[in-house]
């Protein structure tokens, strides 16, 4: 198995990517309309949107494009939040505001695949749907309800019986579930590089190896300093997700970064025709969820989390292999070929949050593990926030960052809740 240091994007996705992108480090002083900090999907899609609106945009990436979660994700394109369906969103945000957020989530996968099409992004995009199998009878009732709620607001969603789910997965053991036919999967690293190419094509100025070290207010806006350059602009957007540092301490304290690991089998050969024969992406209903999809060579790419990080490069692939073997006994002879990890920005309420300050600083955080499509849908919203669209016309209501209680301790011990999650999952009937 190829082990890959956790400080680099996925070696699998890099090896499979035909997209290439390189940018210089910032070594001068530039004036712009907007500075975007962070070269993941959020920052790039926002820079692309702003450039299309005619803004002069400078994007600063601390490392290389795709260094963050965007280059390490499982690649599932999901048009649904982790916890809140339409009814729960409406309970939180009644009326038009709730409807706008529901539409944003519903259309998120459309937005991602539209970018793939418009800019011919070569990322092995496969739009054959997303499945959520239910691991208990209770969850099957909830997923049926969820499918009905999403279908009622116009999403291509439907409940699946346990028999239908078994046929779709190529494995039994689930109590039905639901499908969202608008979902699918991509090579997330290739998609991120393709977005960078598209943003540059639309006129955004992108710099790699250019960490925003310091941001400060100047007369007409913001001054952003990097090791070798400076950018001044009236507006600044932070798209730093789980890598958020101290540029805006309140933003960092509003999220808990959680490490998630990925592992991929060697190519499955003929077996690939029997596992996920229709090539969907899958994430089940467990809190410590099981998820997988195939890559273009027929590897099964899956992942999980660990409470203790020691020996992760050995323990995580073994855990994933055991879970996959339980589902697909024929996989027993296949070895795990790739391993990597990344960090996810979790919010306490599991919702995305948009923040806008009167001094021109904007951000959104809270992908909660489902950020690929959401980041594409949030880009025009962040661009609207930057452009001064009034609060009650934005698709997501801006709020003040709310600190996670006891943040310093919570972010260190969050992963130790995992055994409790596994216990809860196993108790569900
Ligand atoms: C292992 C894993 C699996 C996942 N699987 C899925 C999935 O299957 N489906 C799904 O929808 N979502 C998934 N996610 C979540 C998804 O990857 C993220 O929601 C999404 O990529 C977030 O994109 P982003 O641009 O907001 O953040 P990132 O991609 O993390 O980008 C943030 C960037 O900001 C840069 N940065 C930070 N500070 C500075 C600074 N001061 N100056 C300049 N640059 C800075 C970082 O270097 C980084 O590149 C997964 C995440 C992980 C980690």
CATH architecture of the largest domain: 3-Layer(bba) Sandwich
Counted beta strands: 21
Low-confidence stretches: 1-5
Top CATH class of the largest domain: Alpha Beta
* Count of discrete structural domains: 2
User: Beta-sheet strand percentage?
Assistant: 15-25%
Structure ligands: flavin-adenine dinucleotide
- The proportion of residues forming helix, as a percent range, comes to 25-40%
Alpha-carbon distance between the termini?
37 Å
In the CATH hierarchy, the third-tier topology of the largest domain is known as: FAD/NAD(P)-binding domain
Shape: globular
Q: What do we call the CATH homologous superfamily of the largest domain?
A: FAD/NAD(P)-binding domain
SS field, number of helical segments = 13
Molecular structure report:
By secondary structure, the protein is α/β, with parallel strands linked by helices. The protein folds into 2 domains: 2-129 and 182-413, FAD/NAD(P)-binding domain (3-Layer(bba) Sandwich); 130-181, no CATH class. It has 13 helices and 21 strands. It has helices at residues 11-16, 41-52, 86-92, 95-106, 108-118, 137-152, 162-169, 188-201, 249-252, 312-327, 372-386, 407-413, 418-427; strands at residues 2-3, 29-31, 34-37, 57-60, 76-77, 130-133, 157-160, 177-180, 184-185, 205-207, 214-218, 221-225, 230-233, 235-238, 256-265, 281-283, 291-294, 300-304, 336-346, 353-356, 361-365. The strands form 4 sheets. Strands 1-19-15-18-17-16-6-8-7 form a 9-stranded mixed β-sheet, with helices on both faces. Strands 10-4-3-14-21-20 form a 6-stranded mixed β-sheet, with helices on one face. Strands 2-13-12-11 form a 4-stranded mixed β-sheet, with no helix packed on it. Strand 11 (214-218) and strand 12 (221-225) form a beta hairpin. Helix 2 (41-52) packs across helix 11, helix 3 (86-92) packs antiparallel against helix 4 and helix 5 (108-118) packs across helix 11. It is globular and about 65 Å long. Mean pLDDT is 93; it is low at 1-5. Flavin-adenine dinucleotide binds next to helix 2, strand 15, strand 19 and helix 11.
């Amino acid at each position: 198995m190829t082990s890959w240091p956790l400080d680099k994007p996925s070696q699998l996705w890099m090896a499979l990517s035909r997209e290439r992108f390189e940018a210089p480090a910032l070594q001068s002083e530039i004036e712009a309309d907007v500075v975007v900090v962070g070269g993941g999907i959020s920052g790039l899609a926002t820079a692309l949107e702003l450039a299309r609106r005619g803004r002069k945009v400078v994007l600063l990436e601390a490392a290389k494009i795709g260094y963050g979660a965007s280059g390490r994700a499982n690649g599932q394109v999901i048009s649904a939040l982790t916890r809140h369906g339409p009814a729960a969103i409406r309970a939180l945000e009644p009326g038009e505001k709730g409807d706008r957020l529901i539409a944003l989530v519903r259309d998120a996968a459309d937005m991602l695949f539209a970018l793939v099409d418009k800019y011919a992004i070569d990322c092995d995009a496969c739009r054959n749907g997303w499945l959520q199998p239910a691991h208990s009878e209770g969850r099957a009732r909830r997923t049926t309800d969820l499918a009905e709620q999403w279908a009622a607001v116009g999403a291509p969603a439907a409940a699946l019986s346990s028999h239908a789910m078994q046929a779709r997965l190529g494995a039994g053991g689930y109590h039905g579930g639901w499908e969202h036919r608008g979902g699918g999967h991509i090579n997330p690293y290739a998609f991120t590089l393709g977005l960078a190419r598209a943003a540059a094509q639309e006129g955004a100025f992108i710099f790699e190896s250019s960490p925003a070290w310091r941001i400060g207010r100047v007369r007409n806006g913001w001054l952003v300093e990097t090791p070798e350059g400076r950018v001044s602009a009236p507006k600044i957007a932070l798209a730093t997700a789980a890598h958020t540092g101290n540029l805006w301490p309140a933003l960092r304290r509003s999220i808990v970064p959680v490490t998630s690991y990925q592992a991929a089998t060697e190519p499955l050969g003929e077996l690939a025709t029997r596992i996920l024969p229709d090539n969907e992406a899958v994430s089940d209903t467990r809190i410590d969820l099981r998820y997988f999809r195939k890559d273009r060579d027929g590897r099964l790419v899956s992942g999980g989390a660990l409470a203790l990080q020691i020996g992760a490069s050995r323990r995580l692939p073994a855990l994933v292999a055991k879970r996959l073997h339980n589902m697909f006994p024929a996989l027993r002879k296949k070895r795990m070929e790739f391993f990597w990890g990344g960090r996810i920005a979790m919010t306490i309420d599991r919702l995305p949050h948009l923040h806008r300050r009167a001094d021109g600083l904007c951000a959104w955080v809270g992908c909660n593990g489902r950020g690929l499509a959401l980041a594409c849908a949030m880009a025009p919203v962040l661009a609207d926030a930057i452009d001064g669209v009034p609060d009650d016309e934005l698709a997501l209501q801006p709020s003040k960052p709310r600190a996670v209680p006891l943040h310093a301790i919570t972010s260190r011990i969050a992963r130790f809740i995992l055994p409790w999650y596994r216990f809860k999952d196993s108790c569900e009937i």
